[in-house]
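During the reporting period, we have paired protein sequences with backbone structure tokens. One record among many follows, to show the layout:
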Amino acid sequence: MKVAILSGSVYGTAEEVARHAERLLQAAGLEAWHKPNLSLEELLAFGPEAFLTVTSTTGMGELPDNLLPLYGAIRDHLPAWQGLPGAVLALGDSSYDSFCGGGELVRELYAELGLREVVEMLRLDASETVTPERDAEPWLQAFVAALQG
């Protein structure tokens, strides 16, 4: 199964988690693909059968700048991905009112596209974790199991 891993990162943490997820999914036998600053054309050419988005939140609950162009292109074109599985891993800081707001925006986009959320969004709190890629592993294993189930 081809899994597209999209990432939105301000300081690089979400991108590191996305790379870690890519390795874990590949080790589980999935054709996982992560490319930062991905274009919609590249994504469509890959032909994803499932989606994983790893994103941090910036500003007042917005997506990081490096994910905005792809997010906008997907919203403008609404590709025919109805029924495909997906999941969102959100990084944030619970001391902000907009905790994991970027992840919520992606969940709304998934709903607009008709993607099935196969595991509930994971919210990783920067004030509680120093190893987000390790803390995400049990959730990522659940995501893999949902895709392979």
